[in-house]
Design brief:
With 218 residues, the protein is mainly alpha-helical. It has two domains: 16-77, Winged helix-like DNA-binding domain superfamily/Winged helix DNA-binding domain (Arc Repressor Mutant, subunit A); 82-208, GntR ligand-binding domain-like (Four Helix Bundle (Hemerythrin (Met), subunit A), Up-down Bundle). It is 69% helix and 4% strand. It contains eight helices and three strands. The protein has helices at 16-28, 40-47, 51-64, 82-103, 109-127, 131-149, 152-193, 196-208; strands at 37-38, 67-69, 75-77. Strands 1-3-2 form a three-stranded antiparallel sheet. Helix 4 (82-103) packs across helix 6 (131-149) and helix 6 packs across helix 7.
Length: 218
């Protein structure tokens, strides 16, 4: 869809990380569609910032695979390539598998409670057909073990490739949302009792349930 008209109400003191997050989320939630051109001047005007943080954000988005730059032309939102999503999904699944393997039986009561609360909000968002809220709640749910682990290298990998996978999650939540809620509850129980192998297995199933296996032209 075209860039929304008018200013978005973002303060001019917006940090470059905030610009990156705004553009990333607009791509993930479909505000900017695959193939749509993104001109830094238009984006800067929309966000009420200079072109510099926008250009930096587009470079970061390029590294994540969410946008592609054509020399001498404007940047465009990348198409959803099943092979690329599949590769990113496998990396993300491995990182989350590591996080639950290292935190099973070690999460605080508060962490487990926040996972349950996030999953409750996830379920409520699905019932309300609010996929954006569902994605946010799902992301919060899975990041609790990651944050508890405190592995910065792991977090950096998720930051880079996570948004690419989140676009595919929109399809999964539309088709298979209830199953995701149930898998989340199962994971919480396994983490609580310290079942390392069970938690890792459920995490594998969660991430490999993404619809990323459609045939790809060779």
């Amino acid at each position: 869809m075209p860039i929304p008209t008018g200013r978005s109400g973002v303060d001019r003191s917006l940090l470059r990380d905030d610009v990156y997050r705004r553009l990333r989320d607009a791509i993930v939630d479909g505000t900017f569609e695959p193939g749509e051109q993104l001109r830094d001047g238009d984006l800067a005007e929309w966000l009420g910032v200079s072109r510099t943080p926008v250009r930096e954000a587009l470079l970061r988005l390029g590294a994540s695979g969410l946008v592609v730059a054509v020399p001498g032309r404007s940047t465009a939102v990348s198409t959803i390539d099943p092979r690329v999503v599949r590769d990113a999904r496998d990396v993300i699944a491995s990182m989350h598998g590591l996080a639950v393997r290292e935190t099973a039986g070690k999460l605080s009561v508060e962490d487990v409670g926040r996972m349950r609360e996030a999953n409750h909000r996830f379920a409520e968002a699905l019932r309300a057909d609010d996929l954006a809220a569902a994605l946010d709640a799902d992301d919060e749910f899975h990041m609790i073990p990651v944050t508890a682990l405190g592995n910065r290298a792991l977090e950096a990998v998720l930051e880079q490739f996570g948004p690419l996978v989140r676009r595919a999650e929109l399809v999964r939540f539309t088709l298979d949302g209830r199953a995701s809620v149930e898998r989340h509850e199962q994971l919480i129980g396994l983490l609580s009792v310290g079942d390392v192998h069970g938690a890792e297995s459920v995490t594998f199933d969660i991430w490999h349930s993404l619809p990323a296996d459609e045939p790809v032209d060779e």
